[in-house]
Amino acid sequence: MSLHFHRVALVGKYQDAATGSAPESTRQVIADIAGFLVEQGCEVALAERTAASTGLHQYPVLDVARIGTDSDLAVVVGGDGTMLGIGRQLAPHGTPLIGINQGRLGFVTDIPLGDYRRVLPTMLAGGYEEDSRSLMHGRVMRGDDCVFEALAMNDVVVNRGAVASMVELRVEVNGRFVANHRADGIIVATPTGSTAYALSAGGPLLHPMVPAWALVPIAPHTLSNRPIVLADSVEIAIEVVAGRDASASFDMQSITSLHHGDRIVVRRSDHRMRFLHPRGWSYFDTLRGKLHWNTGGV
Length: 298
Description:
Blueprint: E1 7-12, H1 24-39, E2 43-47, H2 48-54, E3 61-62, H3 64-70, E4 73-78, H4 80-90, E5 96-101, E6 111-112, H5 116-124, E7 128-142, E8 145-152, E9 155-159, E10 167-173, E11 176-183, E12 185-189, H6 197-200, E13 212-218, E14 228-231, E15 236-242, E16 247-250, E17 254-257, E18 263-278, H7 283-291
Parallel strand pairs: 1-2, 1-4, 2-3, 4-5, 5-6, 5-18
Antiparallel strand pairs: 7-8, 7-18, 9-12, 9-16, 10-11, 10-15, 12-13, 13-14, 15-18, 16-17
């Protein structure tokens, strides 16, 4: 079977919070997968931080920019958080991603760790389903100045402070006033993020093929403030009107503090993420498995 992907970058969980290095189990998993890829005929490189935390130095080491320019494929080992972190950085390069799940849920790192030896050879030879996901580009505007910006694959969230009361947020869509929300915060979620924080806050599930976002209030003071689905071609602006210690987070990984009058402006990014799945993959299979639909049923 001839290879479709020759140069493969391997990205894994970076480190254990307590020790500052990868657990031995993670190190062994990365070593095993790297060795397996070499057996398939691939040229394997490790992401910079993965190499540093695992101590595996027998492979070339690439920073994110060089993964984007020098690799045909990135294989990501971990949970969805690991995929979010590397995926946003590789999206401008159009690098396809395969996710091997070493985490808990694994909505986008969807290949079980025990299955990679069975699944990867066919995918490396070009037998896969491709799934393209939209990204959001968020900016924090303070007057006329952009003081923070980031990409988000899951969501942009404006939250109240940890010990503060609810915040008041003015929401506009394409410059038109929607409402002032008094709530614990508000979530703008992509279809990918509709199974994350937005789902916990009562938002709808959005199929990845739907070009839409969900705008989901978090614990709104007025219960008639319900989630709404919007076309992803719109611009959403959220202004902090009142409340202390508010913050904006992007995929819960990039976070910045907000002042009164700050506007968080969210648009669709020009970049998309490319996920590769095994042949026969179905989004509905993923939902059934991860959300335990039909449990106990026929």
